[in-house]
Amino acid sequence: MRNGWDLFYPPCCPLCHQILQGQEQMICVKCRAKLRPIGEPRCKKCGKPLEDGQEELCRDCRIRPHWFEEGRGIFLYDQKMKDSIIRYKYGGRRIYGEFYIRALALYGESSMKLWRPQAVFPVPMEKRKKRKRGFNQSEQLALGIGRQFGIPVCTDWIQKVKKTKSQKKLNAAERRRNLQEAFRGKPGVWKIERALIVDDVYTTGATIDAVAGELKKHGVKKVYFLTICTGFV
């Protein structure tokens, strides 16, 4: 049974934003019928959908090396998912995180069993930006994944130490330059061999790569990632 706040702020579907009728629903019936996780064929490196089932890697992963070993986004970053994540990050709909965490755990379970990460790392956010927004969405997602799989979450092992431009309007090369030396891990060699990075969206991989590169500087041997969505620039 939902609490009394729902009388003033009724729960809404995280995709279409319509008020949910069922007491235990996380998504409305219409959106549930249409929503599909990304399936095969998909890139064996970053998880993006492939048009040609004979290919193993997407174009980006064929031409550009990555610091991470493997990863996947659960849903395609189409307009509906884009609108949903915007409401989640900027529109005060933090409750949508419950649905995203459930989806990450459900559809990412098979990958998690293969990867066997020993620790989860959220993509860090500048302190001023976090104060302004009120939360770090990557951290909320990472904490949820940690709870679901019983894995420790390292929320303060890496900091964002450089103010960067918004990645949205930059091309792939500009995104990578923008994030050079942006993250810094706490000193020392960490006793972690396999780590998982959690974020909301994967596009060019610049952000995941920047964090993965920093992890490897501290002795992490294999880095994987999970995101809510994957998209194309």
General description of the model:
This protein has 233 residues and is α/β, with parallel strands linked by helices. The chain contains 9 helices and 6 strands. The chain has a 4-stranded parallel β-sheet with strand order 1-6-5-2. The chain has a two-stranded antiparallel ribbon with strand order 3-4. Helix 4 crosses helix 7. The chain is globular, with a radius of gyration of 18 Å. The N terminus is likely disordered.
Averaged pLDDT, please? 91
Structural class: alpha/beta
How many β-strands, per DSSP?
6
What is the overall shape? globular
Order of strands in the sheet with most strands: 1-6-5-2
What is the share of helical residues?
25-40%
Describe the largest sheet.
4 strands, parallel
Stretches where pLDDT is under 50 for at least 5 consecutive residues are 1-7
Q: Using only CA atoms, what is the Rg? A: 18 Å
Distinct helical segment count? 9
Taken as a percent bin, the fraction of beta residues is 15-25%
Euclidean distance between termini CA atoms: 42 Å
Question: Which series of helices and strands comes N to C?
Answer: HHEHHHEHHEHEEHE
List keywords for this structure.
233 residues, alpha/beta, 4-stranded parallel sheet, two-stranded antiparallel ribbon, 6 strands, globular
Write the layout of secondary structure elements.
Elements: H1 29-34, H2 59-63, E1 70-76, H3 79-90, H4 96-107, H5 109-115, E2 119-122, H6 127-133, H7 137-149, E3 158-160, H8 172-178, E4 183-185, E5 194-202, H9 206-217, E6 222-230
Parallel strand pairs: 1-6, 2-5, 5-6
Antiparallel strand pairs: 3-4
Helix pairs in contact: 4-7
